[in-house]
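Please go through the protein record below and explain what the tokens say about the fold. Record follows.
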Amino acid sequence: MNLATGIGKTRLMGACIAYLRYEKGIKNFFVMAPNLTIYRKLKADLGNPSNSKYVFKGLDLFVDPPRIVDGENYDEFRQMQSFVNDVTINVFNISKLNSDSKVKAGQPARIKRLSEVLGESYFSYLQSLPDLCIFMDESHHYHADKSFDVINELRPILGVELTATPQIQKGSKKIPFKNVIYEYSLAHALNDEKYVKVPAVFTRKDFRPEEYTAQQLDHEKLNDGLRLHEDTKSKLEIYARTFNKPVVKPFVLVVARDTDHSKEIMKYIKSNDFFNGYYADKVG
């Protein structure tokens, strides 16, 4: 599925899991996360009812949360049988899965080692499940390395990929996915004005970019952007003091063409020519 960032891929994933449980009786799921931040978020969103973003709220089969097995506790799986809910969701960070799937110093891969508690390896246990379904969040991350080999070894009955970037990057070449069954792009989301914030574009009146060099244009954009940032920051502070609310600190994201361009921008932001060096220690 090609889905724009910010429209609720995790909620859709939860809806798919709920549908498969209600309609097909499937109870075993495996969710892949591309990094630690999303890994932690997925565990909370899928398994913590007190979390405001818990995806199974209001569903009778999920009043008791599903059992979450992750990269830290899968060795203790058999000791987690006290869960009322019969749905198990395995949540793994891809780097952890890759690491635990490698043979080291002649020893079997950790996830494939025999567990005395299980009577088999956890990997073998997953392979033996007759109803294992895999969901791959930001799935474009998994095509470029050995991750897909590990996933295929699990022999799932269903694999669902979710990403806002349905393509594989091989050097300078971009290879689009050939298995996209549904697409809801950022353009669709912006047009619907429902799921993402419509960006505001600020321009100067009667501005003539042809009168500037590329570097001068960069500098003008950065200066305008930071003035807007400071204005926003000031208004947020006033709002917080007026209504006794926590202060929200805005930030600025600068997108560069490439690494060399980003270095040029960084150098300018840290220089005394940019707001007298005020942001020299505030950029990273």
